[in-house]
Sequence to fold (185 residues):
Amino acid sequence: ISVATPDSAEKQRIAQHFASLQVPEIALVVFDPDDNNDALQSTFDSILASGLQRFRIVVLKSGDLPAITTARDTLHFIKVTAENQVSHLNQLLRQLPSEWLILLDAGDLLCAAGVLRLQEALGNSPACLAIAANEVQRDPDGRLISVVRPGADIDLLRSRPDVMSRHWLVKRQAVLEVGGYSEVY
Fold:
């Protein structure tokens, strides 16, 4: 992973490149149903280290909220339960100013190289409605395993949404136009 992480000179060139692309703001919606502050902090740290240029973080959290925030804040906490987290997510979609969003779980870590690729795709494909991201998982022995998703395969998405629907960057307006996220599924 360190080989794929840009050094400070590369980060500066990348920042200049993205400034010229006018990359839109991304909302990172982080689910924390287990009230796991350590996992949440790991996710925050990876976001800050990822090189993401324009973003806001919204945490849908069970348990006590660490701060009182509003939807205008860069970091916003919303208290949820298992029963109402999707309705809160859909309400949030109507309030967010961000053009794009990605759903994460507390403990998910962003890879700098992957975030750079997502930003590049956003800057070069403004008409796109969704971008799938691959992921890296740890096996029980701690080894890293790459999970590479095939191209847009609607049949695979329908048959295995648990595998295929994670880590999609989606245009917020497109989700609103289909009625938001389903509370049934």
